[in-house]
Design a protein that fits this description.
Blueprint (H helix, E strand, L loop, with lengths): L11 E6 L2 E9 L7 E9 L17 E3 L23 E8 L3 E7 L4 E10 L4 E10 L5 E14 L10 E7 L6 E6 L15 E7 L7 E2 L2 E6 L4 E7 L5 E7 L4 E7 L2 H4 L3 E3 L4 E3 L3 E7 L2 H15 L12 E3 L1 H4 L5 H11 L6 E4 L28 H10 L3 E6 L3 E3 L13 E2 L2 E2 L1 E2 L2 E3 L5 H18 L3 E4 L17 H22 L4 E4 L9 H4 L4 E3 L9 H8 L8 E7 L5 H11 L3 E6 L6 H23 L1 E7 L10 E8 L2 E8 L5 E5 L3 E8 L2 E5 L4 E5 L4 E9 L7
Parallel strand pairs: 21-22, 21-33, 22-23, 23-29, 29-30, 30-31, 31-32, 32-33
Antiparallel strand pairs: 1-2, 2-3, 4-9, 5-6, 6-7, 7-8, 8-19, 8-20, 9-17, 9-18, 10-11, 10-13, 10-14, 12-16, 14-15, 15-20, 16-17, 24-28, 25-26, 27-28, 34-35, 35-36, 36-41, 37-40, 38-41, 39-40
Helix pairs in contact: 4-5, 9-10, 10-11
């Protein structure tokens, strides 16, 4: 077996952070005399690694216009390993707190800073790359990855038996786990070791959680190791598993020129910094890396004080379906107030003209005075019931039935033509006149009326990108607009410091880590009252902190008690958002809802801070759901078990593992089997239950 050899003068450095060892290794480029690259690898600190056995390509994956490919068969398959990746380390500087800067150069003025930050609490590393153009001419980037993590292999030093975990996403189908054997992806090595094996995935456009969520993990079940990556991705992004020899690399970052038409010209003396990627290596499985990522995200959140207790909210959308009025809200307030709800959100349609629908009238943002004669008075009525008032906007786009839709110069264009997606156009947020318009139509009314909550929706994508005044490539134009979109969050919070911001985009189409770091919560999905809500909610819980994951619990007049319990149990995986016919429920059903909310108060700390231990879902087709789901989360001495039976009548036996049943919210038949030390649950079609367990006295964790 041919392996690269590390000469005595080549760079090698090993750093220990917590239970992880990080390696920087200089490696010869096969087929190129005297050419080397420096790669990055990570393993648990107690795993013995022979650096001479690592095949590492560059930790800086960069491509400039006109770059040569270092490796055969790469054009059209990968933009990794171009000539510009042949770099030398100038120095490394380690800072207190687990931060490490690595400075690299090609010796011709193309310099880089690879910045690594370590989070002690979670074992998660954050990485980004800055390119500094110290040449005397502009340089045009066609690719610059946030992270390239190499040396991923099994215990035998190859990729046999490895698995790739990804999360597919679509409307009302967000973040479903997908697992593929390397062999099925064509990632197993050929007999002669020739040719590149590559699997690229990602998303092009302004809905980054569409197609895939920006996550990937490579697992070796035999050794119990798993490497996970999560990428900040406000616009187009891509990930790639790249295998050239015995080991493989996992790369993530912004899109490249081949996949997303991205180019960035950096002037002489200028610089460009990537978005951040996060990675960790764990013993365990995909839930273990996801728990680490979610806890790391949660630790960086700085929400308004009103968010600290994860209050329940009410959104009237599934009651009025885009036709809210002051009178309707008055009736809903009377029913919702006794439930202890903190936020009351007025959803779409408050601006709707009498003769047009809400969806295509967005953009003018004029309050319908027939529906709301005095919006400030409505806010005061909500506040008088002890709730904070929220309102819906989709400020980045305009609808065909709005006046502003016709102002073409204020909208994004591609090749000089306005980008129109059916009935929507996209405002060019880079323009000063657009900024002034939105300040007048959104920011000023929020302050004048006294809203403390804004739901920001976004229901289409402008695709590969747009024209720019500076002549930038389409992908770069699109990235600039996405950045301006997020800058609006900062403007809103600066003007209204305690404002709660909800991120919604056809449900969960923009729940990527960077945007989520700027908001209080997200709409987990548009699965408003589907049978598959618990399946989607569990999937999203792997990537979003629970206190940010707002889950619909739509209550309907005439529904069974079982259905009410089913909906509330699903919402208990995150933040409960009530909606529907709350004002038309009888006292018995209102008591059932109140009991569910009381139970939720007892499990909030597990929901918020716990680790996912099990998501056991036997459902194959979400729209024809046959099977059941078991969801288990642990925190301290407590365990939460949420069970949903879809079209299924079966029995579930859950080992207690040193826990005792403390309380339950369910109408399922269940019992504690002391002889088997298990909780036995008899399932019925579309029934559910939530069970709170406490560690038995004298029992230690399993």
């Amino acid at each position: 077996m041919h392996r690269p050899r590390i000469g005595k003068n080549m760079y090698f450095k090993k750093y220990i952070y917590g239970d992880t060892a990080v390696y920087f290794v200089e490696t010869p480029v096969e087929g190129h005399d005297k050419l080397t690259t420096v790669g990055l690898a990570a393993f648990p600190a107690d795993v013995e690694v022979d650096p001479k056995a690592l095949h590492l390509d560059s930790l800086i994956q960069v491509a400039f216009t006109g770059d040569e490919a270092l490796i055969d068969y790469t054009y059209g398959v990968s933009m990794r390993n171009r000539r510009s990746t042949a770099l030398k380390i100038v120095r490394q500087t380690e800072f207190t707190g687990g931060n490490l800067n690595t400075y690299l150069t090609d010796g011709a003025g193309n310099d880089y800073v690879h910045r690594l930050f370590y989070d002690r609490k979670t074992g998660v590393f954050t990485v980004n790359v800055r390119y500094d153009n110290r040449t005397k001419t502009p340089r045009t980037l066609e690719y610059l990855a946030s992270l390239s993590l190499g040396g991923i292999m099994n215990a035998e030093g190859n990729t046999v038996g490895l698995k790739l975990h990804r999360m597919t996403s679509a409307w009302s189908r967000e973040c479903r786990l997908k697992t593929d054997e390397f062999s099925h992806l064509g990632l197993d090595m050929s007999w002669g070791r020739y040719g590149v094996k590559s699997e690229r995935w990602g998303q092009v456009g302004s809905m980054p959680n569409r197609g895939y969520f920006p996550f990937g993990a490579v697992e070796d079940e035999a050794s119990g190791l798993i490497w996970g990556v999560m990428q900040e991705a406000p616009f187009s992004w891509q990930m790639e598993v790249y295998e050239e020899k015995e080991t493989c690399s996992l790369t993530s970052g912004f899109t490249d020129f081949e996949t997303g038409h991205w180019r960035k010209t950096v002037p002489a003396g200028g610089s460009f910094t990537t978005y951040s990627a996060r990675f960790c290596v764990k013993r365990g499985g995909v839930n273990d890396v996801c728990n680490a990522f979610v806890h790391e995200q949660d630790g960086r959140l700085r929400p308004p004080a009103s968010e600290e207790e994860m209050p329940v909210m009410y959104n009237e959308y599934c009651a009025t379906w885009g036709n809210p009025t002051e009178k309707k809200i008055e009736k809903q307030l009377a029913a919702v107030a006794p439930l202890g709800v903190k936020y009351f959100v007025i959803d779409s349609g408050w601006y709707k003209p009498q003769d047009r629908g809400w969806c295509n009238a967005i953009g003018d943002w004029n309050v319908n005075s027939d529906y709301f004669p005095d919006m400030k008075r409505v806010v005061e009525k909500i506040n008088a019931k002890g709730m904070q008032a929220g309102i819906w906007y989709e400020f980045e786009v305009t609808g065909r039935d709005s006046e502003v839709f016709g102002y073409e110069e204020q909208h994004l264009q591609r090749e000089g033509k306005v980008i129109t997606s059916k009935n929507r156009r996209f405002l060019d947020l880079r323009r000063s006149d657009v900024t002034e318009y939105l300040q007048a139509k959104m920011l000023r009314p929020l302050k004048e009326y006294g809203f403390k909550y804004i739901k920001i929706d976004y229901n289409d994508t402008y695709g590969v990108g747009c024209d720019s005044a500076d002549g930038a490539a389409l992908g770069e134009g699109g990235r600039q607009v996405a950045e301006e979109s997020m800058n609006w969050y900062d403007r809103l919070k600066s003007a209204i410091p305690d404002l709660v911001i909800e991120n919604c985009s056809s449900g969960g189409s923009r729940i990527e880590p960077l945007r989520m770091s700027k908001v209080s919560m997200c709409s987990f999905s548009d699965a408003h009252e589907c049978n598959e809500i618990p399946l989607v909610a569990a999937n999203v819980s792997r990537v979003i902190p629970a206190r940010q994951s707002q889950i619909w619990a739509v209550i309907r007049k005439g529904e069974s008690s079982s259905r009410t319990i089913y909906s509330l149990c699903a919402a208990m995986m995150g933040r409960i958002c009530l909606s529907g016919d709350i004002n038309r429920r009888d006292e018995e059903k209102m008591a059932l809802i109140k009991a569910g909310l009381d139970f939720y108060e007892k499990i909030k700390e597990i929901v918020r801070r716990g680790d996912i231990k099990v998501i056991d879902n036997t459902v194959e087709y979400y729209r024809a759901p046959k099977g059941r789901q078991v969801y288990i989360k642990d925190y301290g001495e407590s365990r939460l078990v949420i069970v949903h039976f879809l079209e299924s009548e079966e029995r579930v036996k859950l080992p207690l593992e040193g826990y005792e049943l403390a309380e339950a919210y369910t109408d399922l038949n269940y019992r504690v089997d002391k002889n088997a030390d298990a909780l036995r649950i008899a399932g019925e079609n579309f029934h559910a239950g939530a069970f709170l367990l406490k560690r038995a006295a004298g029992e230690e964790g399993v």
